[in-house]
Amino acid sequence: MTTKKFLMTALTGLSLFVPASAVTVDTDSLGAALNGWRKNRTASYSIDNHSYLTHKPTVTPNAGGGIFVSTRVEHKPRFGKKLTSYIELNYSADGALQSAQIRVMSGDMRLNSGLISRPALKAPPAAGEAPELDLEPWHSPTTKMVNDLFTSLDTEFAKLSKRDQEGKKDVFSRVFGKGYQSADLAAALRHNTNLLLGYTR
Length: 201
Description:
5 helices, 34% helix
């Protein structure tokens, strides 16, 4: 058996043990929506007069199928420390978002939304019982997860703001810089999250 044929046989055998994932991230379209990828695999753009840098996502196959997607978003202030955030999304093999998390850091400051998991399916009604009324039919599981993700992040911002109000070394302005608010960062992160969700199929 030739070396080439041996390698082809080995690779074919290995492929039988690697779970195939139908879900993919359209990074080309994602980059185009963020003003285009540059040679260093980043996209530079502005939102509400604030400058940001998004790194091309890292996509890792999950052992049981599906993918884990992570991307870095940086706020580039004119003055002060750079603010770095990580958006982490976990998908099943059929493309359903299973969990999401956002981490924010600047210097020794760390904020974490916590892991937001896909809500469990409601059990079907027992025989003879009427189905439970859905009071929010417009909320898909993914929409609810994204809302919960940013509600949790807003809670972390509020804690930081409270520390600032208590006079603890001007924490809020030290982290976000003069003229830059937590709402500005949340808007940029939501924009990136929505694009990632839209271009993952």
